[in-house]
Batch of 3 targets.
Target 1
Amino acid sequence: MTVEKIKRLFSDKMSGKTVSIAGWVRTRRDTKGFSFLEVNDGSCLANIQVIADPSIANYNSQIRKLTTGCSVMVTGTLTESPAKGQSVEIKAEKVVVAGWADPEEYPLQKKRHSFEFLREIIHLRPRTNVLGGVTRVRSRLSFAIHRFFQEQGFTQIHTPVITTSDCEGAGEMFQVITGYEGAAVVGERGAGKEFFGKRAGLTVSGQLQAEVYAQALGSVYTFGPTFRADNSNTSRHLAEFWMLEPEMAFCDLDCNIRIAEALLKYLLADVVEHCAEDMALFDRFIEKGLLHKINHVIDNDFVHITYTEAIEQIEKSGKNFQFPVSWGVDLQSEHERYLTEEVYGLPLIVTDYPAAIKPFYMRVNKDKTTVAAMDILVAGIGEIVGGSQREERYNVLLGRMQEGGITVEDYQWYLDLRKYGTTPHSGFGLGFERLIQFVTGMHNIRDVIAFPRTPGFAPC
């Protein structure tokens, strides 16, 4: 039985029942012939107190030698606890030591460690309160994403990790080859040839392939890892990260916005309800007022403005930004945070960006200078969702591809979707790690993914 389950099920009727748990010792203290073990099994933030006395066979030989990090399996009687801050405890009848942790070598002791230090011991950091909590929140958010889309009638698809399509058009892809660095590329097609017969890379987005299935099944979503070979060594960037990308046929930009806003509110409400203990920890130690911020988002409509209105707000602010703004330049994180944190105080949906700064697949507006794009910006993070209505008009899409220097032959399959039963359609991408940052208040994106990959850093 897990500690989390014991907490949920405990009642007077369970008092006196025999239970078994397995976990890791957080602390041990001895007093008046007893040992008190704080054991955590990872199922929740709370430890459970185990009381061991000298009547247990291995009390002196093992139990009194237990230190932080040792793993144990405990069988005993569940009783109501008189101690403050806990409802139950276990009076041990049997304690089996599964694994020892030398206190002279074990790097995690009963003190607060910096996140920078914990990144140096990436294989042990999930055992800390904060990183364990982040992992449970991440798991819950992943579950809630699938539940939301399944309830809305979406079909999940699995888009390829290896792709020949550069969706963003920036060329920042990890090339996939066989062999090793400095060697000839060897595949079934012979030395010096690409394995797939053409250049391939790790995907930066599953959007284009998701559009294929949206044009057959209506509403679909893909959720998985994506990769960006961008040499950005900041607290906001990863080389490997997870993206949620829904695509909807017969859905215009307004429809797209409604689904994105509903999704974000659904996810926030779910995690507040089901991860209350971990969220309270983040609210207390990571970001003061975190729960108030999240509930404020849940309870209020998002603000809608155009890109042009956003630029006007920034220009009249009188603030000295690192990156100056003018109509036609992309918004930077400092601009996005200013708008959400200082001007509106709510998530902000910005629409109708200049076509020149957006990818070729976004639908051109009637003014022929902007596209039907939307970004959702949130406090502390900036952009968390980016999406658009897709260009469904064959000739317009073809012209945009030619203007952008895209090899049309490589994307003929994408153009075919506009030849055979084209529909108005739209979609968006949600950066999963940025969502977790917003939900937990964690400042560095490397602390919300299990094994961060950044330039020069790929542990485990």
Note: The two ends are 31 Å apart (CA to CA).
Target 2
Amino acid sequence: MAVVNNDNYHNLQIRDNIRKMRLVLDTLPSWLRDYFRSIEPSTSARTRLAYAYDIRMFFEFLKENNPSLKNTEIPDFKLDILEKIGRTDIEEYLENITLYEKDGRTVINGERGKARKLSALRSMYKYFFETEKVSRNTAELVIPPKIHEKEIIRLDADEVAKLLDMVESGEGLTEKELIYHSRTKIRDVAILTLLLGTGIRVSECVGIDIKDIDFNNGGIKVTRKGGNESVVYFGEEVEAALHDYLDERERINAESGSENALFLSLQNKRISVRAIEKLVKKYASRLTSLKKITPHKLRSTYGTALYRETGDIYLVADVLGHKDVNTTRKHYAAQFEESRRHAANAVTLREKTPESTSGKGRKKTDTDDENE
């Protein structure tokens, strides 16, 4: 059987997550393998790995806090433990992870973090309940944390221009940072221009190969969440920044395994998500101290600008790669409502006349004289 070497960034990430998953499964009860096998068709390797970590964390809490489990290793937990766990056990676990110590560091979970961890337990319980391996779905009894909607943080148009100017000039950087800036300026401008000019996710940016860029049609092939490939189109500013960087990129000998990567680190390896997060923070922190700007906030900046220009929520959803337009509408609700208000006066039914305006041009009556 022929072996196909399809080693793009996305596939390498999947393989890496699968390897990590196998290691985590060795630290969990064997009966959980059936559960993870059942959700494989509908989840990504990254999601399953996150669920495995969360479930293991819950079992670690039980082992540490339940006297009857102190002498039992987690892989030896029996399936009937799910029957013995009560609603209070899960609620105490969620309360505990609000703030706890691990490996010498303080870990904090907000409402969203706790909701994700409860989601992992609910998914596990649902499988064993629906397959009639347990008689009750205890996790379903636990009320999820109330998620408070966060204000969308984005850059204003003038802030976008200032940010890109700062990246080019190095304004505000320390002497040490300026040394590295001289080597990364063109790359950093290209990365930020691409993020701001297309709204792609940072993981999608990291995964771009040189061959994925099509200057003839002004598009870049990216791998979306879930593994679907899509073409994202770019404008003249992004094109110019990419050309400038590619001129430099051609002179770099990439390390083995990164030869095809578009963006490289100073070590000449494919740049990481963490590295892009750090470079965005480095420049944005000099721009504003009032907004915590991350690559995702640059994505929000693009989505907001696109919606304001087009007023088409479906187009924004498609360009950003949202599977459900309600996700887009949720994030851009304020702009969506503003456009709806404008729409109230967008259609004119009859041409306005002085007489049709409130109280103007109306014939004066005797009653008016009395009121005066």
Note: The first strand starts at residue 99 and ends at 102.
Target 3
Amino acid sequence: MLVGGACGDALGVPYEFGSRALAGEPRMLGGGLGDYAPGEYSDDTQMAVCVAEVAATGADLRDSEALDLIAAKFLRWRAEGATDIGVQTARVLDSVIGRNTVGLGAAMAAAAQQLHAETGRSAGNGSLMRTGPVAVAYLDDPAGLAEAARAVSELTHRDPLAGEACVIWCEGLRRAVLDGTFDGVRAGVELLTAERRQQWAGWLDEAERFPPDHFPNNGFVVTALQAAWSAITRTPEDDHFRKATSAAVYAGNDTDTVAAIAGALLGARWGVSGIPEEWLQVVHGWNGYRAAELMRLALRVAG
């Protein structure tokens, strides 16, 4: 899961928001909107690493202490390692810089709530992109997974749509790890409140009917999830990881995030052996992680 997300991220980096024209099969060329080296992942995986490092301690991600630690890691990343950052996430994090770690998670979530109240628009894809480690931390507890996914999402993204998307995708990741199928995405809808299930089921139906580039406004969490799900479900399973992450990149616009979201689920389903070897050789990024270190981190999260 973690390596798959990083590889999708690094594959999409060169093409984010049209920073390089797509011609032929996407490649890990670096560049993009930052000074990325070939194979270097961006904020999508960097923030997932922050969550994973806390989860690897065995902490319950629903607890205030764990959320304080995740929030503190986000701030450290913001100061030391952020090669890119979403506007919404930056505003929330910048509003709590300098606060003590104790209570930091609550303060960050309150800042996210305030931003949502002011703008009415906080359903970006910035929490969905980092959500994978939550699934690995709750492999035997889908109810706990749903609670933790919402709590970690709400540190920066207060719109309920963001939390719902994280619940759905985390359940997809959990079931992919345990069962080796993609059935968990549909099962994730059942973890939502009854009044929200029909709308999300319809959005998944739509994603299965149309190609990824049908959802170009993929900075929005719903269309980001739809583009990733479309890339996965509409791509033949022969060499599935390569072809589906490439299809996610071809969705355009927020290419690294859509491919990271898709890559996490594809990696959870097919394992590292399903990821192209040449990608495993070069993927790397903040905090000094390469593929092997990401694998070890994920295994610690799983306990």
Note: The radius of gyration is 17 Å.
